[in-house]
Design goal:
With 311 residues, the protein is mainly α. It has 13 helices and 3 strands, in the order H-E-H-H-E-H-H-H-H-E-H-H-H-H-H-H. The chain has one domain: Rhopdopsin 7-helix transmembrane proteins.
């Protein structure tokens, strides 16, 4: 125990985990991850470029989509160094300062993405409920204010976490179960009382992801109520079809996040491999799939992308 207490903050490191038992094929797995990252970055960058350069796409729905693409880019870039470091160079060590910085960006961007999904749900609600006033309700100024407000909410709530973690003493050989740092894992490595971090972490989850998911559900209840009041069956299907992409994005984001949170809470009884794989799904799949789904489902966006590449 004295060794633990003598461990200094500056000399302590965390050990990240790849996929245990698959070390022999880490190089081949790295090829898959590289491909995922390239597609994620290229797909989201293309969406951003097309929306920015095409004035006809300067509509609320596409502005929110560009916000989602920017957040997905940030999440991909935040995880690239440590994941590829493990699988390409077997570099598992990460300093506490680098770990705290990484978890700050990962959690901030995750909560911003949750907020963007909420804004996109509100966008679909307004478009279906009041299409004639859609552009005036969601004007560029209002969109910018809402986006800034939710971004500040996420950053302000996450900002104290690195400082709360920095005050702890950490045991040697702190092995994390992912290829990146998460607050709920790092705080359990501390040789100190983590009650404050645990309570504050729960408060953040409830006030961001919990509230956002509840409001998204409420938005879709209102959307469904509005759609059912439409007399024409064709118009009902058309209205619901505009929500398919967003529903896919919501499921891709919230399903692995909730699953990972449950596995962390019941860590002793859960499979370590399942926890690791779900962690990769949580971080890698949404940035990969979101631009593909929106490009496929949005005829206008798809046509602009095809036109840009043909030129």
């Amino acid at each position: 125990m004295s060794a633990v207490n003598d461990t200094s903050f500056n000399s302590a490191v965390f050990l990240l985990t790849g996929i245990p038992g698959q070390e022999d094929v880490h190089l081949w797995i790295s090829v898959l991850f590289c491909l995922v990252f390239v597609i994620s970055i290229a797909g989201n960058s293309v969406v951003l470029f097309i929306v920015k350069t095409d004035p006809s796409l300067h509509e609320p729905m596409y502005i929110f989509l560009s916000m989602l693409a920017t957040t997905d880019l940030g999440l991909s870039i935040s995880t690239i160094p440590t994941i590829l470091g493990i699988f390409l160079f077997n570099s598992r060590e990460i300093s506490l300062s680098a770990c705290f910085a990484q978890l700050f960006f990962i959690h901030s961007l995750s909560f911003i993405e949750s907020s963007v999904l909420l804004l996109m749900a509100f966008d679909r609600f307004v478009a279906i409920r009041d299409p004639l006033r859609y552009a005036s309700i969601l004007n560029p100024s209002r969109i910018a204010k809402m986006g800034l407000m939710f971004m500040l909410r996420s950053v302000v709530l996450i900002f104290p976490l690195p400082f709360l973690l920095k005050r702890f003493q950490y045991c040697r050989a702190n092995v994390l179960s992912h290829s990146y740092c998460l607050h709920q894992e790092v705080m359990k490595m501390a040789c100190s009382d983590i009650t404050v971090n645990s309570i504050y972490g729960l408060f953040i989850i409830v006030s961001t992801v919990g509230l956002d998911s509840l409001l998204i559900l409420l938005s879709y209840v209102m959307i469904l109520k509005t759609v059912l009041s439409i007399a024409s069956h064709v118009e009902r299907v058309r209205a619901l079809n505009t929500c398919v992409s967003h529903i896919c994005a919501v499921l891709l984001f919230y399903t692995p996040m909730i699953g990972l949170s449950v596995l962390h809470r019941f860590r002793k009884s859960s499979s370590p491999l399942l926890q690791i794989l779900l962690g990769y799904v949580y971080m890698l799949v949404p940035p990969l799939i979101n631009p593909i789904v929106y490009s496929v489902k949005s005829k206008h966006l798809r046509a602009r992308i095809i036109k840009a590449f043909i030129k």
